[in-house]
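Methods — Computational structure assignment.
A single polypeptide chain was analysed. Its primary sequence is given first, followed by the predicted tertiary structure written as structure tokens.
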Amino acid sequence: MDENSEKEVFYTMKHVTKFVLGASTASLTGSLCAMTAFAEGTADTGNAGGLAGYSSLIFLVLMFVVLYFILIRPQKKKEKETKAMQSSLQVGDEIVTIGGIVGIVVQVGEDTVVVETTGNRNKIRLKSWAIQENVTVAENAKREQEAKIVAAKAKKEEKEAKKKKKDSKDSDGDQGMLKD
């Protein structure tokens, strides 16, 4: 998959996620309004009104739990991965900044990074938080994944070849023998 199609998939998934989140928020809000209206309508019946109050409270808690798992948790996970990537930068890594500047790391400081950007050896000092992607690490991970896929395919083909060879031996040996 090339870079453009990966970006298209990312943006499509981003739009789908926003749509689903909006739809679920709207349905949850509608359900909450309906429960509140039901609770007001049954408030005269005594115990049922108190029960409806607890159910709306449970519903709110459940809504916040769902939003936590949909929004907050994935965002924190991504931030943690980004911080780890930014702290593990090494000299020679090719990086992309938030502003789209591509360069090679020349020097790594405590909270700054010096990046060489062009063939003229122009150098820019950047804050480490401005680094969006480490292209070198991403390419190495992609190569490793492709190597694993190729190895798995080769292993599968080898098993199939052995099975065919064994089947052909069995069929050749059985033709001339009589079994009891």
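Note: The radius of gyration is 30 Å.
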